[in-house]
Amino acid sequence: MRLELYIPPLKPFDVVGLGLNAVDHILVIPKYPKPDTKLSIVDYYKGGGGQVATALAALSRWGLKTKYIGKIGSDEFGEFQKQSLISEGVDIKELKKVTGARSQFAFIMVEKGTGRRTIIWDRDQRLRIEPEEMKEEVISKGRILHLDTHEVDASIEAAKIAKRHNIPVVIDAEKIKERTEELLRLVDVLISSSSFPEKLTGKKDFKKALREMKGYGCKIVCATLGKGGAIALYKDKFIVARGFKVKARDTTGAGDVFHAGFIYGMLKNWEIENILKFSNAAAAMKCRSLGARQGIAGVGEIREFIQSVRKR
């Protein structure tokens, strides 16, 4: 079953993304610490992160043209994030530096052996992106617009521009803020975390929650289920795709890579079942390495991984 959604051809960029970027400090620990104790770390890694920024990095590695819209502070972390996006081949002409502001960063405690994590983060309010900063000439240059649920006001304006140009809108739904529901009504492809459906709808029954989410007017809704894979609802049909078993070192960025996989499959006009399979595999493979981006595998590697699992 293919997703019936018009994607404009021949644009300067395959994907334009608006959302978070961050510098992640990964601290691998033997176990979660109790209060008032000391614990030695097992491993440490610093890398680029952020939902949309990481998805664009993955898509760029897979041969697509991507543009990022966002902000950094005038500090060491900001320069690190800027250079990390440049190294991935992401266009950063719309990455603005805010003088005096702190760039977003996070300390992520990852439990050795399980890959479970706890994120402690900081975002300077001066990094806020205003709706009036959205430029029609920038948004209209992409075949797909990718958003998250952090910069809601700016995302609404960006989505409205995309709609005027028949550009499909994909969202990484994680948080609920004021006007989130207004934003969702402008979305074509809604992909959420496993906890988002209940938070949004109040329904504990997963399928009922997804049906209500689809009522916002989305063409397709999907929820990631961690190692359980993913479930999507399209045309009143649920499509379940199982996850891939790997030895997880760190789950940071797995959802971001899943979103990248879904967008990649959309642009390749794959069947939904194959999109979910590819996205699950890409996300699982990422979990074998520390950080959001270090473990992003190439398209060929992902296909080989899927084939190897089939032969088992």
Compact summary:
With 312 residues, this protein is an alpha/beta fold. The protein is 33% helix and 26% strand.
Describe this structure in words.
It is a single chain. The mean pLDDT is 96. The protein is 33% helix and 26% strand. The chain has 312 residues and is an alpha/beta fold. The relative contact order is 0.16. The protein has one domain: UDP-N-acetylmuramoyl-L-alanine:D-glutamate ligase (3-Layer(aba) Sandwich), CATH 3.40.1190.20.
Entry keywords:
312 residues, alpha/beta, UDP-N-acetylmuramoyl-L-alanine:D-glutamate ligase, 9-stranded mixed beta sheet, 33% helix, globular
Structural class: alpha/beta
Helix content: 25-40%
Radius of gyration: 19 Å
**Could you tell me the mean pLDDT?**
96
Coarse shape: globular
In spatial order, strands of the major sheet run 5-4-1-8-9-10-11-12-13
Largest sheet: 9 strands, mixed
Count of DSSP E strands? Answer: 13
Terminus-to-terminus distance: 26 Å
CATH architecture: 3-Layer(aba) Sandwich
Please, how many helices? 10
CATH uppermost class = Alpha Beta
Q: In the CATH hierarchy, what is the superfamily?
A: Ribokinase
Q: How many domains comprise the coordinates?
A: 1
SSE succession:
EEEHEHEEEHEHEHEHHEEEHHH
List the helices and strands and how they pair.
Layout: E1 13-18, E2 22-29, E3 43-49, H1 51-61, E4 66-73, H2 76-88, E5 91-98, E6 105-111, E7 117-122, H3 136-139, E8 142-148, H4 152-164, E9 169-173, H5 180-184, E10 189-192, H6 196-201, H7 206-214, E11 220-224, E12 230-234, E13 237-241, H8 254-267, H9 272-286, H10 299-311
